[in-house]
Design a protein that fits this description.
- By secondary structure, this protein is mainly alpha-helical.
- About 80% of the residues lie in helices and about 0% in strands.
- The chain is built from twelve helices and no strands.
Length: about 260
């Protein structure tokens, strides 16, 4: 079982790496980090602040773009090429193994891309400051949270791709990401609103994925420590929500008529 999932994950990783979109996004992210370094140079006493904010934001956004546009095509592309029928029929692979393998392969791709962009980011930071300081360790926490975002958005994209078209899956996934980014504002709006609107806004704020909790870029840019309990909470939250989305994807895909 583990071997079969690993094979699918490796093939997914290999196909994703060959996709030119990935290279373009990585190059664009590196250019954004370079732009952040340039803007930092022309700023007054806020060079590090500008570099950290723009650099981490670039890593986050471009990784999200990769997760969405590659994630939604993991299933639909296999169906269009009719390679899915061969994989499921000719080889002893269950549908849930196929879903897990695809998800793990894309997460691995995102981890490699995030690692490459992070190397460029820290290189730019070292070039700017000529040294690393103790507060820079919190940048690793921010990058870890960004990776948790990748895991969550991949599970959501994969879930939508199992039952709808690539266009609608893209719209649904990006919509959840945008709404989830403002989840705290939605919760605050619910507390201010009255009547049924209050309960509806509160329900949406708690049910929809809360991407806002993963955004600590502003804090680490100002060298504010990230509490350990937040790291634990975000880890548990991302794992549980991603597991729920992946389980939904498997449940839907198991019942889908592929003929």
């Amino acid at each position: 079982m583990i071997t079969r999932i690993g094979v699918i994950a490796f093939n997914t990783f290999r196909e994703a790496v060959r996709d030119r979109v990935l290279y373009n996004l990585v190059v664009f992210a590196v250019l954004m980090i370079g732009a952040a370094l340039l803007l930092g140079r022309i700023s007054i006493n806020i060079e590090r602040l500008v570099l950290v904010n723009l650099g981490l934001t670039a890593i986050s956004l471009f990784g999200i773009v990769i997760a969405v546009f590659v994630g939604i095509s993991l299933v639909s592309k296999e169906i269009e090429r009719r390679t899915l029928y061969t994989v499921l029929a000719a080889r002893p692979i269950q549908r849930w193994e196929f879903i897990l393998g695809k998800e793990m392969g894309l997460i691995g791709t995102l981890a490699v891309n995030a690692g490459c962009m992070s190397v460029g980011f820290f290189a730019a930071l070292f070039y700017l400051e000529r040294q690393f300081v103790a507060a820079d360790r919190f940048l690793l926490v921010a990058l870890y949270f960004i990776m948790l975002q990748y895991v969550l958005i991949t599970a959501l994209a994969l879930m939508f791709s199992t039952f709808t078209s690539p266009l609608l899956a893209t719209i649904f996934t990006l919509s959840l990401f945008v709404i989830g980014t403002f989840a705290e504002d939605l919760r605050a709006f619910g507390e201010l609103a009255g009547g049924s609107t209050r309960y509806l806004a509160a329900a949406l704020a708690y049910l929809l994925p809360n991407f806002a909790v993963f955004n600590v870029i502003s804090e680490v840019a100002h060298s504010v420590p990230v509490p350990g309990r937040l790291v634990l909470f975000n880890t548990i939250y991302a794992v549980l929500y991603s597991a729920a989305a992946t389980s939904a994807a498997i449940w839907i895909f198991q019942r889908r008529n592929l003929k």
